[in-house]
Amino acid sequence: MTPYPATLGVILAGGLARRMGGGDKPLLMLQGQTLLGHVKQRLAPQCGCVILNANGEPSRFIATGLPVVADSVPDHPGPLAGILTALEWTARNQPAIEWVVSVPGDTPFIPADLVERLHAARSTAQSAVAYAASGPQEHYTTGLWPVALRHDLRHALTVKGMRRVEDWAKAQGAATATWPIEPFDPFFNINTPEELDAASTMLSITSLLSRRFGNDGCGEQEDCDD
């Protein structure tokens, strides 16, 4: 049993990956596994279940075994729409879960204590939401969101025209949980071929440390109702 409320995980995979030549960036390979596979492996043990927010033909993600949920608002307005989609999907399909954590599909090193520390941050600050930071960098799309705010978020997107996750998070008085950036940033994201190469080196270091300390960061995950 986790020391925090039941939480659904959503992996945001709606970007166009222009700097990587287009296509689905989360399906790029990193040491024999897709970026999406690495993210799922780290996120799943922390969540009751995990879904994937992606638009277009869902069959291209069939190997993940995750429910694929397209944006619930038109015209692909960005990651804020993915968060809204996850909140609304959870309310319909997992009504017992009151929290959603979001992570980008190109961050293969998210920490094993991500969900626990985000819950601790929002509880300590008595805030409705929380997001991650590392060193001086703030990572608004890596955040914790209450399902109860889905109506407010839909209004912000469709009526106010809000597009930035940062703007909505700060409007809710978001708390912040901060991680160190040594030996490397756990929220390192991949946008270029050079960063993919760097991630391979980082993964080798992570694997070495995991073997040394006997913790592979894996665990069991319940199935989501689709």
Automatic annotation (TrEMBL):
<keyword id="KW-0479">Metal-binding</keyword>
<dbReference type="InterPro" id="IPR025877">
    <property type="entry name" value="MobA-like_NTP_Trfase"/>
</dbReference>
<dbReference type="GO" id="GO:0005737">
    <property type="term" value="C:cytoplasm"/>
</dbReference>
<keyword id="KW-0808">Transferase</keyword>
<feature type="binding site">
    <location>
        <position position="106"/>
    </location>
    <ligand>
        <name>Mg(2+)</name>
    </ligand>
</feature>
<keyword id="KW-0342">GTP-binding</keyword>
<dbReference type="GO" id="GO:1902758">
    <property type="term" value="P:bis(molybdopterin guanine dinucleotide)molybdenum biosynthetic process"/>
</dbReference>
<feature type="binding site">
    <location>
        <begin position="12"/>
        <end position="14"/>
    </location>
    <ligand>
        <name>GTP</name>
    </ligand>
</feature>
<protein>
    <recommendedName>
        <fullName>Molybdenum cofactor guanylyltransferase</fullName>
        <ecNumber>2.7.7.77</ecNumber>
    </recommendedName>
</protein>
<comment type="similarity">
    <text>Belongs to the MobA family.</text>
</comment>
<keyword id="KW-0501">Molybdenum cofactor biosynthesis</keyword>
<dbReference type="InterPro" id="IPR013482">
    <property type="entry name" value="Molybde_CF_guanTrfase"/>
</dbReference>
<feature type="binding site">
    <location>
        <position position="106"/>
    </location>
    <ligand>
        <name>GTP</name>
    </ligand>
</feature>
<feature type="domain" description="MobA-like NTP transferase">
    <location>
        <begin position="9"/>
        <end position="166"/>
    </location>
</feature>
<keyword id="KW-0460">Magnesium</keyword>
<dbReference type="Pfam" id="PF12804">
    <property type="entry name" value="NTP_transf_3"/>
</dbReference>
<feature type="binding site">
    <location>
        <position position="53"/>
    </location>
    <ligand>
        <name>GTP</name>
    </ligand>
</feature>
<comment type="function">
    <text>Transfers a GMP moiety from GTP to Mo-molybdopterin (Mo-MPT) cofactor (Moco or molybdenum cofactor) to form Mo-molybdopterin guanine dinucleotide (Mo-MGD) cofactor.</text>
</comment>
<dbReference type="GO" id="GO:0005525">
    <property type="term" value="F:GTP binding"/>
</dbReference>
<keyword id="KW-0963">Cytoplasm</keyword>
<comment type="subunit">
    <text>Monomer.</text>
</comment>
<dbReference type="InterPro" id="IPR029044">
    <property type="entry name" value="Nucleotide-diphossugar_trans"/>
</dbReference>
<feature type="binding site">
    <location>
        <position position="71"/>
    </location>
    <ligand>
        <name>GTP</name>
    </ligand>
</feature>
<feature type="binding site">
    <location>
        <position position="25"/>
    </location>
    <ligand>
        <name>GTP</name>
    </ligand>
</feature>
<dbReference type="GO" id="GO:0061603">
    <property type="term" value="F:molybdenum cofactor guanylyltransferase activity"/>
</dbReference>
<dbReference type="GO" id="GO:0046872">
    <property type="term" value="F:metal ion binding"/>
</dbReference>
<keyword id="KW-0547">Nucleotide-binding</keyword>
